[in-house]
Amino acid sequence: MDYQIAIPSHKRSQTINQRTLRYLADAGIERDRVRVFVAPEQLKTYLADTDKGLYAEIIPSALGIRENHNFITSYYPDGQLLVRADDDLKHLATKVNDKQLEPIMNLDEWIQAAFLQALDLGATIWGIYPISNPFFMKQKLRTELSFLIGQFFGSVNRHSEVLQAEIKEDYERAILRYITDGAILRMDFMCAVAGGVGKNAGGLQTMDRKAMNQRGTDYLLATYPQYVKLKAAKGDGYPEIRLVNG
After folding, report:
1. 11, 39, 187, 209: which could form a disulfide with 63 (CB 3.0–4.6 Å)?
2. Which pLDDT belongs to residue 68?
3. For domain 3-243, is the CATH number 3.40.50.2300?
């Protein structure tokens, strides 16, 4: 199966080398599939800090989450099977029981199976459970509109899909695919194990996350009111939303 892996990254040249890139190699992913996308001014640092044996290329992209993802979409051919991964992943894992996760070390097999299952359902995007807590995970496949966390997901690349949400772009992506396909695929027994929001240097921590979250929330509520509902804010004051099936 001809799929590619794109990793958008921001100021995590050492973290991506120690985590996502190393994990992909250890989990059996061929380096020629893997490309890293960074703002042009960070390219020199990434080339210096990363092991060139772990990826095919580092591509100068665009600054900003939305901008980087939109650049990635335009970089690959329309119709390309494309996996996107965060830059701070320790590993992917599956639920064993309510207290235990098992790392996935045959990742190529999982990716191929996910694409085949999604396409068989008429969906062009698949994703994983949004938190790495086996107690809440289920041995279940979801096909209704659901949050597909941007940590790790696969899709059929679409040049027509241009994200507008400055942040919470993973919500917008799920909505757009649900509108066009009538289905998504989320594997609630699979998750990504990483450092957690705000716990790894670089990434969103270097930006005004609270203001960006508010602007992203406002945009989604205004643009997709039939699919997005506001939830009570958490203690940190960040706005929260949930997806509904219209």
Report:
1. 39
2. 97
3. no
